[in-house]
Structure formats: structure tokens, C-alpha cells
């Protein structure tokens, strides 16, 4: 997926990380949210490699640190997720508009935050989340990249969706779909 | 994809195993997590650690040994290694004088090394290599680290071996980085095993000019023309960046990306050497060969380092690694 | 054809010129006729001369220097050199102790060296290297000389350096030849500049098994399968030919044909080493890399040499050439 | 031409040799037959390289040695040419039937020898020579090679005409055609 404007390994990296997580499923289920996020972060960090490994690893570790409350209401989810996204911004020295996964992750953060403030119902939250993720992902298409490998390509990167933005969107949409089932 | 491999998932493991066997006289290989380290640890020496995605061999594993690196952490092919590799490597080779990380400037490498460094509880410094002048100096992520990395590792490795302390090694590393410029071109893409197809498409009369070392596209596509014209473009970019004075002594390194025969690399060297000598620059050391590769990519890069007495002395100092050896 | 060259006719010239510049500390290049010779001639030493078509670099030019060859005569790409080259090289490097020609067994090489030898008026001997076991021992022209040549040159080179006389060098050379067996396979053809297209066609799932080093087809076409299976075929053929006893010490050389990355060569080494160790054979020395190449051909060969104390001592002796260097 | 069963350089080698000869044309014209053949042999030997360089070089040097008589009648030509072919046989340790240039050269030798004995007229000699060369060349097609690079291919060499046999035939036919003009 990052073949066009990256080095072609993003999906492999992600799959390696997800596979490692799957193997720990039984263990993770035993843990509270904080410990589970922490462990997931460490696992992603030590199995994925690449830019995305350090970023997603950092995200989950930070989410683990933020998840003190066992109670997972929308506000808690929003706070925890935001802590994760902020850690990516800090680690990657990047922000929205640089053609990275943050272009998916930040709009979702904003959507969660405003839905939490407005106490929106679950269906709305999940639908808004998917819209934000998808629009964010798509917004990377016409961007110039200023972070990550695609930045080396200058104008040649325009017209391609960022791999990290795309996989983040996919994952967030799958999560939203799963949550809407129960 | 035509490769001498058994399975996409086991390439790295099996290759490292072969490397470890073939060079068991000088290195040892740690399986979990992956890193290669020097067999004989000397006390009170700054420990040099580098690493990065695999697929650039002999960089970095082939540069572990006396007078150069203490450890190298290979990631998956073209994928930055993970922090636990650098942590464990550091714990293994640290010898009371701190750790110097030599990191090629790529987001993934930088961040993963950073995380390792943050968790480390011994003195440490990082030298960031960013010698690729195909990108402007003020590029948003900085320039990439490419074939100049070997030169940094050799010179700082010799200094560490001679007893220089951490601050001195760090300063020397930065000096070499600032004195070094590289630029490369590709005639073909490489094929990453996990991908199974060339990373980019390129026609028979195109050249990717200004490429990195991960099979990513270059700065621009050009028409394939004579070696003279192509090498001039590389040499000019380097010359404009470093602006060496007349009489300046330099090290000229022509690096192959893996699939370009020595016959062509020496031809490229001839053109580049001529270019710089015509400008009154004195080539005092040379290195020609496939050192910082991109798997099976055809193409080459040129690296120039402005040398002074200190750097020359360290370049000439004995080294015994799998890929670079003299004086021992 | 995608190559870093200026013109088909000038490739060899320009490449040799670059080689000569890059290694002017140890070699000199004679323009007319072509040969590369050692810079510092030692008196009363048997002079070792090899040669053959170009395109196998670093063989042989990259093996000229202290402890190895005194001169190398490169022909056009894959074309035997001409007798005047060997004559002039011999006259230049002969140092009172005679000349030893090291010749790979190909009709063209053999005949051209023969003509030179007939015209020479100093004592001379020839060691014919025929290590390629992909051909039967009783083949009508004898077996080809391939990657084992480097091993002959290293060991006999060290003996000559240590003062062995012509008869001793000749005898030692023959001993190394008899103790050495090689076999190779190709994943792709190479492209000879003058031809402008691959020498043979091969599909994506074919392997040429039992190839020489001139881009000629191999003994047979096989299906591309795992490295394990392919390397076993090479190793088995070598094992059956040399029939090493249990406990036999050997040198294992995995050679790349030019476009195969080190990552794959080390993987091949791992399989081959495992194969021989399982049979109780003791691998005491290893050499992995692109040494006897076929321009930009992808593929590899395996070479095994049965070592004794004398051969080990000479293998370990200091050597300083462009491609092989240790102890100096 | 030797791409199929050789290493693909035979024609290049030959052209390099012929080009060198062409450059010496003015010089060669001044010489007697013996000296001219000698010089041509040395030139081919030091410019062609490869198996064919040493063989054709030897051939011309031997022809130079054999060409003592300034008078070039058919018997002399046959004797001189035979000396050349014999030197190839000796140098190459080869004979007819091994899928080499000798499969062209030897039949022509035999044809010249018998035409010289029978005192055939020029047209007959030249026509026989062409027939012998062409049949000889064609005979290599179905042979197994036992000399030269093609010998490494075993059965795989069958079905291909030998490059040296082909170029020898071409050259001999061109010579015959030229001679028939005057
Ligand atoms: N500095 C950064 N900040 C945020 N995201 C980044 C940054 N650098 C890269 N990325 C994201 O990482 C993705 C690439 O991940 P991956 O392919 O695993 O790493 P690598 O670039 O090391 O090969 C990009 O598509 C982009 O979304
Ligand atoms: N031993 C030999 N005797 C006679 N002719 C030979 C012999 N070996 C090779 N040849 C001829 O030489 C030709 C090849 O010439 P060339 O391609 O120039 O040399 P090389 O085989 O060294 O590449 C073959 O086609 C064959 O006709
Ligand atoms: Mg990537
Ligand atoms: Mg990567
Ligand atoms: Mg040839
Ligand atoms: Mg040939």
C-alpha cells in the first residue's frame, strides 16, 4: 500500500503487529484496560518496526497511562484516545495536514471530543467517527507530504493516499462496525 | 520474484544465521531480539551501535568488529528495528564509557532509536547521518542518511577504539556528517521479498535520479543517458553542497546498490574522480563497491567526505569487520 | 540494456582506468596491451600471472597485489585475453624466479596462454583450474575453471610470497585444484554490453543449474524452488565429487554472480554450511561475496576446498589486493 | 551468433579482428604472401581474443610459414590453406565432427586438395569450395559439441549451427565470390 509513495512495507509491518497481538489475545483479556493498552503498545513497538511501529506503540502505551478508570464511558474513551493521538503528534513531531496517519487520527479525536461534550448516542458517535476517519484519510490524497518517506517525493506524492492514514481509517471503521453490533 | 530464499518470512532469520556462522570468529548473533555484536568486548571503550532495516548489507552487520561498530540491530527488510533490539544491544556492549548511536535519518529509525535511548540508563549520544543531498538542506524531515554512514562508522569507530570519550566521539561523528555528501541514482527498482514485486516501475530508458536506499522513487525521472552525463549530475550536486576548496583532500566513495557490477562502478569512479580532480580537489582515499545496498537494485551513489588529518588517521586505522578490513 | 556506461566499445578501457585510479597505491595499469600489475616488485619471487575475459570482477584484476597475483590480463568482456598481453605482463613482472600462469580451463584461455607461454624465454609453468563439477570429470574439454580460481591464486600467491620456487608453486597449485570443487546456478542471464541483450532467455520460474561464468546456459533448466532444495543440489554434487572424509577441514566459499544480494548469499551459506557440517566436515574458513562474477547475472556458486595445514597457513597469510585484504 | 550455445561474443571478436586487418590494408598490400599472412595472423591473434582469435591467428601464421613460393597456383593455395587448417587442428586438439569451425574448414581443405589433384578449373574449384563450406557448416547443426563452449551444453547444443563454422563459411563464400569476379 505504501508502494507508490513509501517503501512498500507498511501493511506487512502492521500485519506483523496485529498477528503478535492476536497471539496474546487470551492474556490481554485478563488485564484491565490500562494494562492491556500498555501491553499492546509494547507488543506493537517490539514487533512492527518502521515509523508506524514506534508511533502506534507510543499511542497504546500513552493510552494505557491515560486509562486509569475502569469505567469506560464516552468521555473516558475520548480522553484516552486523545492521549494516544497526542503522543503520536509528539513522537512524530507532526500534525494534521502533513499527509500521515494523523490526518485520519486527529479528525476522529475531534469527532469523539465533540460527541462526548454533546453526549451523543452510540450510533451517532460511531457514524461520526467513521465519517471523520474516511474524510481524513481521503484528505491526504491531494496533500504534499512533509513527514515520513513520502516527503522525499515532493510533488510526486500528490494524488496518492497515505498508507498510514488508510490503515488507520480501516481499523477505526472495523472497530466502529464491531461496536455497533452489540 | 526470483530470489534464493525459502520463504518470505524466514529470509532475515536464515540470512543472519548464515552471516553469524560465516563470521563467528569476530561476531556473535543474538536471536531474540535480533542484534549482532562484537565477539571481544574491550573495557572502557565507547560502544558504537547502529542499525536500520535489513536489505542494505553489508551495512550495518558487516561493519561490526574491531575498529568499527560494537553492535548492529537489523530490522525487517527496509523496516526500522524496534527499540528492544537497541536496548538489549546497548546493555550487552556498553563497557563503562557510554553508548553512541549512529542513526540514519529516517522517521522510523529516528523514533525507534529515540525510544530506546529514552529507556537507557547509561550515558548515551546519537549521531544522525543525513548525507543525501538529493533533498534540500531545509527539507521538512531533514535529509536522508545513505552511503556516508559507513564513513561515519569507520572514522568514529577508530576514534572509539583509540580511547576517545563519548563527547569526543559524538563531536567527531557530527564533524564527519557535516563533511560528507552523497547522491544516488537507480536504473532498476529492487524487489522486497514480502512485497514480491518491484517497488516501483521504470521503463528501459528511464533513470530514477536522487534515490534513497529503500527502493523508494527518486527526486525525478530522467532519460537514461551516458554514464558521463549521469555521474556529472551526482558529482555536481555534491560539489555544490560541500563546496570543497582547491587542494582540499577528500575520500571518494562510489557505492553500488547491489546489482551493479564492479565493472560499472569503477567506470563511474573514473568519471567522478576526473570531475573532482579537474576542480583541484585531491582524492586521497577511495572506496568502490557494494556497501550500502538496496537489495537487488541496479544503480550507484557517490559520496564525498572532506578529510582532515584526524579523519585520515582514523580512516587508515586498522579495522576488522566482515566487509571492511585492513591493518589486521 | 540498462548499464552505467558511455559506449559499448569503451566500457573496458574506462572501467580499467577507474580501477587503476582507485587502487593506484597497490597496482599499475599498462594501457597497450592491457594488463594490471603490482606496484612493488619483489626480486627473486615466482611471478604469478592470471587473466581471462573481463566481466568477472573482482577476479582477476582485483586480486593483484602483495600475497596474491603479480599481474592480471583482462580480455574483452568474456573473451580470452590475447597472447601479447600475457607476454608483456610476464616480461614486466618476471623477477628471476620464473612465471606461473594460472589459467581457467576454457579453450580460448588455454590456447591464448599456451601461445604466450611458447613465446616466453624464461622458466614458466601453468596451473589449469578446472573446479566446475557440473561437468563430468571426463568431459571432452575437461571441466571449466570457475570460483575456485580465487582460492588457487590466494594459496599459491602466499607460497610465492614466502619464497617457494616455481616447481613448488606449480605443485601446490595443482594440489589446490585437485582439492577444490565448485558448482553454480543462475536465476537470470547477464547482459554483455556488446550484445545489448541477455545472453539467454529464462522464465520467472526457471533456474539454470550448473552454469559457468560467461552467461552461457547451464547443464539443465530446473524449476525455481526453495533455496534449501537448490543449494542441496549444488552441495551434493560437490560432496560426491570431493568425497571429503569425516573430520576433514574445509574452506567454504559462497560466490555471487554479481546481482545477488549478500542477504541471499549468506542464506545460501547457511544451508551449505549446515549440509557439510551434518556430514561431519569441519568448516575452518569461509568466504562469502561476489568474487567471481558474470557481470549482472543473479545466482551463486558454492566452492569447497579440502584444506591441510600448509594450505591453511597460506590462506591465512597476509594479502593486500583491491578485493581481498587481511593482515596488512 | 554464438548466443544460443556459446557466450555470444564470437561475431564481435571476429569483427574486431577484421577491423584491425582493414586498418592495415595499405601495409599488407606491400608485403609478399608469406609476410602478409604472418602479419594478419599476428594481428588477429592480438586483437580478437577468445578461442577463435588464437585459432585464426595460428592459422594465418602457419599459412605465412607455408607460403614460401611467390607463385600462387591452386596447388600452392591448397598446400598453404591445409597448413593453416592443420595448425587449427593442432592448437585446438580438435578434428572434424566436433561442432567447430573445423567442420567448415576441413571439408574445404579436402575439396581444394582433390580439385588441385584433378587440376579443376577456377569456377569448379570455387563452386566446390562453397558447397563444401556450406555443407560443412550445416553439418554442425545436428552434432553434439565436444570442443568449445557448446560442449558444456551436452544435448542442449543439438539443433544449433556452430558460430565458428558459420562465420568461416561466410568468409570462405565471400572470398569465393570475390575471386570469381576477376
Ligand atoms: N513523523 C510522522 N508522524 C506521523 N506519522 C508518520 C510519521 N512518519 C511516518 N508516518 C506514518 O507512517 C506510515 C509509514 O509507516 P511504515 O511504512 O510502517 O514505516 P516506514 O516509513 O518506516 O516504512 C506513513 O504512511 C505515515 O502515515
Ligand atoms: N578446440 C577448438 N577447436 C576448433 N575450434 C574451436 C575450438 N574451440 C572453439 N572453437 C571455435 O571457436 C568458436 C568460438 O569462438 P569465440 O566465440 O570467439 O571464442 P570463445 O569460445 O572463447 O568465446 C566456436 O564456435 C568454434 O567454432
Ligand atoms: Mg513503509
Ligand atoms: Mg520501512
Ligand atoms: Mg568468449
Ligand atoms: Mg564466444
Automatic annotation (TrEMBL), chains A, D:
Return the protein name. Dihydroxyacetone kinase subunit DhaL
Q: Give the matching InterPro entries.
A: DhaK_L_YcgS (IPR012737), DhaL_dom (IPR004007), DhaL_dom_sf (IPR036117), Dihydroxyacetone_Kinase (IPR050861)
Mind listing the UniProt keywords for this protein, alphabetically?
A: Kinase, Transferase
PROSITE patterns in the record: DHAL
User: What PANTHER family does the annotation carry?
Assistant: TRIOKINASE/FMN CYCLASE, TRIOKINASE_FMN CYCLASE
Q: Which residues form the DhaL domain?
A: 1-177
**Pfam families per UniProt:** Dak2
Q: Which gene encodes it?
A: dhaL
Keyword Transferase listed? The answer is yes
Q: Which Gene3D superfamilies match?
A: 1.25.40.340
From which domain of life does this come?
Bacteria
- GO molecular function annotation: kinase activity
UniProtKB/TrEMBL annotation, chains B, C:
Keywords, ordered alphabetically:
Kinase, Transferase
Molecular function (GO) terms listed?
A: kinase activity
- List, alphabetically, the InterPro entries matched: DhaK_1 (IPR012736), DhaK_dom (IPR004006), Dihydroxyacetone_Kinase (IPR050861)
Q: Does the keyword Kinase apply?
A: yes
SUPFAM superfamilies this protein is in? DAK1/DegV-like
Domain (DhaK) spans 7-326
Q: Name one Pfam family in it.
A: Dak1
Protein name in UniProt? Dihydroxyacetone kinase subunit DhaK
Organism from which the protein derives: Methylophaga marina
